[in-house]
Amino acid sequence: MATQTTATHRGLTFLQVAIALQTLAILFQAVTAGLLLSTSHGEVLHSVGARVMYGASMLYVLATILAWRPGGGSPRPILYASGFLVLASVQVVLGIAHMPSLHVPLGVLMFGLSVLALGQALSPRLSERSDTRS
Fold this sequence. Notes:
Elements: H1 14-38, H2 42-71, H3 76-96, H4 100-133
Helix pairs in contact: 1-2, 1-4, 2-3, 3-4
């Protein structure tokens, strides 16, 4: 008789932490963008946040590569993370060029994509919880 065992993951994976950090960094950017209009410190906070967001995007690429190697699964998440890094690069260039008509909508798009990626990264964990309750 064969016995089926399943591995349960406790805690967050590096990939989940990386995408959560990226999502939080983009949310911080939205908040500091509003501060740009109302305080003198807004520009400094937005500038620092841009560096953190860009670093978080690079960390997300690294996390997808590390998550892909052991399992040998599809490299598609690496492509998505790399595409996001390209969007972050364009976002930085548009911000430096002071082009808010393109910078702001791209930031909104990036936040939405990051939230979707976070949801996908957390969804297996949520389904594991519902399986254990049944």
